[in-house]
Amino acid sequence: MPRFFIGCISGTSIDGLDVALVDVEAKPAITASKTVLFPELLEDELRHLLQPGPNEIFRLGLAHARLGEFIGASILSFLNDNGLDAGDIAAIGSHGQTVRHHPDSDPGFSVQIGSGSHIAEITGIDTITDFRSRDLASGGEGAPLVPSFHRMLFHPYEHDQIILNIGGIANITILYSHEQQPFFGFDTGPGNALLDAWVHDSRQLRYDSDGDWSASGQVSNKLLEALLDDSYFSLGPPKSTGKEKFNLNYIEQHLRDFPKIESSDIQSTLCEFTAVTVANAIERWGPESARVVVCGGGRLNSDLMQRLDAHLNHHSVIRSEEINVNGDSLEAGAFAWLARCFTDRVPGNVPSVTGAKGERILGCLYPSGTKV
């Protein structure tokens, strides 16, 4: 069997498709990666699906197929860039795009789109999708799923480490140097989601480049206090969340009680909100001596990184590139690893992370159609 797997994901920020090539011969290693920007029409379709709207089922089905076609074409281009062909790849692990995540409904569910049938048809490679549903069916949150990959990728580690991923939602994995201690992880709350929503609504920008706008404002302590009063932050793990909760409407609901705050001060407060909720989670659940390794798009926001460093003064806070790990490729690499787990019929979830009743094999297979 080929030793290479491909993983891909469009995260909650919807800033492009991350693709990673993972070598699993020994321990997993990300050997190549790429971010492919969405065509404007597809990006708009995905963003509009995050909230309820008219003709939703048709729009969902169409975006599901179109995203699958885009993923398939992007992977073919990625293979060509790296001098590989379909026969070099054991399988593709495609997370797709989350459009709904409701683990607290009865029963809990999560919807990721990006047609596995189209990906397999276009690439001629076995494709595995729908990684969250089985964990949810067994009583778990269906998220986060990346911690099992973090454990394998960063092992062995001499010191306790916290892997902090800041996408639209922020999540942490706590890795202990003493292997007898179980590792765990959870969603801390908003990452870039509220920052991106507010800068888009106020300035028609996709994101606050380098955090310049948030750095120009002043934190409103009263608004921050109201935001921090959310019951999500008092919950213990396992827990997960998404843009269903942390979105523009969430901001606007809080602003009804604070109508006179300047837009830049709101952005500054939202940046502080992300930093404080991440830091509080780490201070409460992480070992004091742990190094915090930051990946995901939030690591490129200098204002956010400075706030994190100020709040986590008992920890060393570094970007993942400082230990030679591309911070944009980790989540895509995780779904390559989960595809490998599925292929080998090895459980991919971690019950101490998701709260599932037990270990489960995750994913659904779409065969390439070229194998007998």
Please describe the topology of this protein.
Layout: E1 4-10, E2 17-23, E3 29-36, H1 40-48, H2 56-81, E4 89-102, E5 109-113, H3 116-123, E6 127-129, H4 133-137, H5 147-154, E7 161-166, E8 169-175, E9 184-190, H6 193-203, H7 212-216, H8 221-228, H9 248-255, H10 263-285, E10 291-295, H11 302-311, E11 316-319, H12 330-343, H13 351-354, E12 364-366
Parallel strand pairs: 1-4, 4-6, 7-10, 10-11
Antiparallel strand pairs: 1-2, 2-3, 4-5, 6-12, 7-8, 8-9
Helix pairs in contact: 2-3, 5-12, 6-10, 8-10, 10-11
Report on the structure:
- The chain has 372 residues and is an alpha/beta fold.
- It has 2 domains: 4-142 and 329-366, Nucleotidyltransferase, domain 5; 147-323, ATPase, nucleotide binding domain (Nucleotidyltransferase, domain 5).
- Helices cover 37% and strands 20% of the residues.
- The chain is built from 13 helices and 12 strands.
- The protein has helices at 40-48, 56-81, 116-123, 133-137, 147-154, 193-203, 212-216, 221-228, 248-255, 263-285, 302-311, 330-343, 351-354, and strands at residues 4-10, 17-23, 29-36, 89-102, 109-113, 127-129, 161-166, 169-175, 184-190, 291-295, 316-319, 364-366.
- The strands form 2 sheets. Strands 1, 2, 3, 4, 5, 6 and 12 form a 7-stranded mixed beta sheet that branches.
- Helix 8 (221-228) packs across helix 10.
* Helicity range: 25-40%
Please report the first level of CATH classification, the CATH class of the largest domain. Answer: Alpha Beta
- What's the name of the CATH homologous superfamily of the largest domain? ATPase, nucleotide binding domain
SSE run = EEEHHEEHEHHEEEHHHHHEHEHHE
CATH architecture of the largest domain: 2-Layer Sandwich
Tally of strands: 12
Radius of gyration: 20 Å
The tally of helices reads 13
Strand content: 15-25%
Low-confidence stretches: none
What name does CATH use for the topology of the largest domain? Nucleotidyltransferase, domain 5
Number of separate domains:
2
Major β-sheet, in short? 7 strands, mixed
Per the principal axes of the C-alpha atoms, what is the gross shape? globular
**Structural classification:** alpha/beta
Distance between the termini: 15 Å
What's the mean pLDDT score? Answer: 94
